[in-house]
From TrEMBL, chains A, B:
PROSITE patterns: HTH_HXLR. The keyword Transcription applies. This is Transcriptional regulator. The lineage of its organism: Bacteria, Pseudomonadati, Bacteroidota, Cytophagia, Cytophagales. It comes from Larkinella terrae. Pfam families: HxlR.
Amino acid sequence: MKELNQRSACPVSTSLDVLGDKWTLLILRDMVFAGKSTYGQFLQSAEKIATNILADRLSVLESQGILTKAVAVDKKSKFTYSLTEKGVETIPIIVALILWGSKHYITDIDPGLLNELQAGKDSAIEKYQRLAREKSLASLLHDA
Amino acid sequence: MKELNQRSACPVSTSLDVLGDKWTLLILRDMVFAGKSTYGQFLQSAEKIATNILADRLSVLESQGILTKAVAVDKKSKFTYSLTEKGVETIPIIVALILWGSKHYITDIDPGLLNELQAGKDSAIEKYQRLAREKSLASLLHDA
DNA sequence: TTAAAATACTTGCAAAATGCAAGTAAAAAA
DNA sequence: TTTTTTACTTGCATTTTGCAAGTATTTTAA
């Protein structure tokens, strides 16, 4: 349980106190856009996060109520991380980063996704939020 | 001139390579929402950035073409930083952070701004982008 | 004309965060 | 019963950050 130290009462600053580093939003990206949900899956991303950093970020995200951790349905040695509603609501941030990055740098973004985001950003955000909620709900139902 | 080291070709990752730390977006916030444009003004924000970090971030932002540096109109010992179009286009990211932060944490956000953003996010973003462009254009005209 | 203040940094060093490689522990598979 | 899978933890080197002090140029004040 790590307590959040807010540098100021500014909402931008506070958001950055939680999400403002080079790794946290990549974990959320992997959950939303790559369907990942386990420690091992997060380790396999192209950016090669270190194991101790991943463990630390997952624990911060959990203690901030952005994701929840549960034993996987199939294996007791595996954990499944799911987005909370607070986590689902970071999707607009991730989408803004996708649009800015793909506009100003050379990236390998999926043209279909880019098109979808450019055509109707708000409805695309709503779609990915809906999908993320469905996924989280599904993992909750499995537990019960 | 610091070269950007992209960890991967993912647009989220690349955006975070540039903007993903606890200070960079606060400088841009100060330019967009507090009308700040000088080193001394950036130092006075509530979060208390260290002088060496500020100097470093300004030089990165300049070398990434997000802002430009020019001698101030009134004083030769002062510099004025202005947003480029690439910088203006970070405003959707900042707005997404404002909305997420103010929704999930206790902050002192201006209720008028919050209302404006919640009422019509896209048009509010357009408004602040237009204002930022006007401000940058004005400082360019002063130089000539 | 000269001294003090303003402005924008730079430098040195301690502290914290990150990155890397190896090790541990429980559960699952062979 | 041994090996593999999965999720970490630990120790240590490197990098980044933070703090305090110092420098350089321009502007203001005496």
